[in-house]
Design a protein that fits this description.
- Two copies of one chain form a homodimer.
- Chain A has helices spanning 7-12, 33-46, 98-106, 124-130, 137-140, 176-179, 213-225, 238-247, 268-282, 295-311, 331-345, 371-390, 409-412, 415-428, and strands at 2-4, 26-29, 49-53, 69-73, 80-84, 89-92, 110-111, 147-154, 159-162, 187-195, 197-198, 202-210, 232-237, 258-266, 286-291, 318-322, 349-354, 359-366.
- Chain A is an alpha+beta fold.
- Chain A folds into four domains: 2-73, Uridine Diphospho-n-acetylenolpyruvylglucosamine Reductase, domain 2 (2-Layer Sandwich); 80-198, Uridine Diphospho-n-acetylenolpyruvylglucosamine Reductase, domain 3 (2-Layer Sandwich); 202-309, Alpha-Beta Plaits; 315-411, 2-Layer Sandwich (Alpha-Beta Plaits), CATH 3.30.70.
- The longest helix of chain A has 20 residues, at 371-390.
- At the A-B interface, strand 9, helix 6, helix 7, helix 9 and helix 14 of A face strand 9, helix 6, helix 7, helix 9 and helix 14 of B.
């Protein structure tokens, strides 16, 4: 373990993608499980806390240090230890970059499905800590659906290890899922056993164009209630389309207020039949359908989706990026409610994301340096959370709570639930040294 | 809530399918969440403990009362509260019989996949408590893969409730999976939100006949390492075949030492292609293939599988029924090891079950009233657990630990892990009133 205390290094590990910032006491570069044990012991002795960190790509400040924290950087623990094709699992260290793992298992004919947008830079450990999703989650599920085992060094310094390569186990309590989405508050994850699935045989990609956001919402509800299970079902509202238009050329006909990107994968016949069923299902709602003819077309369609985030900065200097999630059956209502919030405060509210999961990225465009606009944006954020919960939804689908969403937890859960969560945390981290001030 | 104390009632709730027996102090018939809260309060006040009970079909004594226990019977809480086709979930009370739920959702075009052998009598709550599997688990997963939310009354009397109908959520710790497989040691489960999947279009059923158990084991390893994912892949060894033969007529050619039952389901084209791939894959190992031509054939094949358990009593008065699980890649080795244990002690050891999951029902046939045979059977049980763990396996794939497997926990896990589990339990049940003496 290398432990660095110089200012330049501490500066580099003081923030994440939210822009929130706090200097850590030191940065520890872990190289194995024993290092994590040593770091926990050291910090307990010295009265310091620990914030585990993958690539720092999070959107909620989960890996931003609190005062008196040492950053436990997992970036050097980046080995793919084993790709076990017979048992269809991979054993990896937490610092492996997600795209690298996907590429590695592809060579064996397998897919590791979770695909957060940051997959070229984020790490598996960070994905586990936040239960990361992505476009493919609608068919393949989120990170939790692939974590079969973990090894973690708890806040006590104990090593919890459950890495058996079995498909079923009812021995001991099922603690593995507890670590998934725990945002570093229970321990330092040092190894992960991941389930793999066979690569699909065929994939088709479509761009569906709608005259209204509500029509697109209804189409999503219909698709998800039918037998068709697309491997991606992404939505873009008019503001996201216009932002991207300013940023790069987009072939979208006039009068279009919403887009869906639909991807179907599986066996060839299955995919072809799903295509027919899909087109039939949306024919009365959809103004135009574009089917990708080749790899370039596919790339062009996804480039539009990926351009949203960077292009938003064209319309306002600050964005508040939420990832609320509602039951799929309430999607159309939720989209209307979010648009109404934007109107109420006179702020652009951009909606896009994982419609098939009811998981919408709601971006409130504002200016942090303009007191009036900033105040409005905070009020709009509160209203969006309240609308979401009123529709049976939750504050976060895949980003987590971290620092940013803590003030709003009371909207979704009673104090009673928080007490229960705190007691479970205390069972694994009794002194509260793991990522304090986050999530709870 | 009706609370009965008369001897006849207490007698009826004193045992499960293991035959272990202990009279409860009383039996409480719960009719809603409020009743569960009232019972927990009452028991805390009176210094009593609680054992939640579904249908009592368990194989490990998990629902057998300990001394000073009140049985919390969930059988009257048997309503299917909602089948929500838009969000593809069902909200049910714990006392719903599994087969009844399956039948109910079938009417909406959906399937609830978990199919333990006792599905005609066992309940959803019991399935959740033991994380029940079944033949279809190889493709569709176990109960844990379908539990999206639970409401449970904890050992403190608090109501934990997470029933949002969303597909993604990273708010709070992920406690829902903790209740799955917790064997009643954390609280009384009062409502369950279950994921549903669309019914498959086509199902094909095959009986594959092998000259040796090892060949059958190798076939399983090959199938599971290929892209084919059968919805059932069950194995029967020679002793199970012979037992069934004594019990009913079975059309199996001479010289056959092992059978596989393989079921393929999905879209028509997908199933047909999987069939070709399957037959190609096992052609050099398999002596004969029987394909079910109609519903009657299918029934005949599964009747053989279901006849194993009752027919075992033909060869010995007592069976010790274990459900060890190994990595699928070690299945052939495990089957050899179990047979060798039988030879060593001169006892029939019958192996059958969920080969595709590496989850084998190992039945040691003995006589509890014969001291020598009983001692041998206990030694054989110990050896089977030791072989399983040496192959990277676990003591239980779907039955749980309950009373029966507690003495063997040390084979699989260190005291350290047990400490961690106990602390997590204590966070939800600090006084230890929930199903004491089980699992840990």
């Amino acid at each position: 373990m290398e432990l660095l205390r110089d200012d330049a290094v501490r500066e580099c590990y003081s923030f994440d993608a939210t822009g929130a910032r706090c200097l850590p006491e030191a940065v520890a570069f872990l190289e194995g499980t024993e290092d994590a044990v040593e770091l926990v012991r050291l910090c307990r002795r010295e009265g310091l806390c620990i914030v585990p960190r993958g690539a720092g790509t999070g959107f909620v400040g989960g890996s931003v240090p609190s005062r008196g924290c040492v950053v436990a950087s997992l970036e050097r623990m980046n080995s793919i230890l084993d790709v076990d094709t017979k048992n269809q699992v991979a054993l990896v260290e937490p610092g492996v970059v997600t795209a690298r793992l996907q590429e590695a298992v592809k060579g064996f004919g397998f897919m590791y499905p979770p695909d957060p947008s940051s997959l070229e830079s984020c790490t598996v450990g960070g994905n586990v800590a936040t239960n990361a999703g992505g476009p493919r989650a609608v068919k393949y599920g989120v990170t939790a659906d692939y974590v079969k085992g973990v090894e973690a060094v708890l806040g006590t310094g104990e090593v919890f290890c459950q890495l058996e390569r079995v498909r079923k186990c009812v021995v001991g309590l099922n603690l593995v899922p507890l670590f998934v989405g725990s945002e570093g508050t229970l321990g330092i994850i040092t190894r992960v056993l991941l389930r793999l699935v066979p690569l699909p045989e065929m994939t088709l990609t479509f761009l569906l164009c709608f005259s209204s956001l509500e029509d697109a919402g209804v189409a999503v509800e219909r698709i998800m209630a039918s037998g068709i299970l697309p491997c991606a079902l992404e939505i873009m509202d008019i503001t996201s389309i216009e932002c991207v238009r300013k940023y790069r050329s987009v072939d979208v006909p006039g009068g279009i207020e919403a887009l869906l990107i639909v991807e179907l994968d599986g066996f060839e016949d299955e995919v072809k039949r799903a295509k027919d069923a899909l087109l039939n299902l949306v024919s009365d709602l959809c103004r135009e359908v574009v089917e990708a003819g080749d790899e370039e077309d596919v790339e062009r369609i996804w480039a539009v989706r990926r351009a949203i985030s960077p292009s938003l900065m064209e319309i306002a200097p600050t964005k508040i990026n939420e990832d609320v999630t509602v039951p799929v059956s309430r999607l159309a209502e939720a989209l209307s409610a979010y648009r109404e919030v934007g109107r109420r405060y006179g702020l652009p509210v951009v909606c896009f994301g994982h419609a098939g999961d009811g998981n919408i990225h709601v971006n409130i465009m504002t200016d942090r340096d303009d007191e009036v606009l900033w105040r409005k944006a905070l009020d709009a954020t509160r209203d969006i959370f309240m609308s979401t919960v009123a529709l049976g939804g939750v504050l976060s689908g895949e980003h987590g709570v971290g620092l940013s969403k803590r003030p709003y937890l009371g909207f979704q859960m009673e104090t009673r639930s928080l007490d229960i969560y705190r007691r479970v945390k205390a069972a694994l981290d009794p002194e509260g040294i793991m990522n304090p001030g986050k999530k709870f």
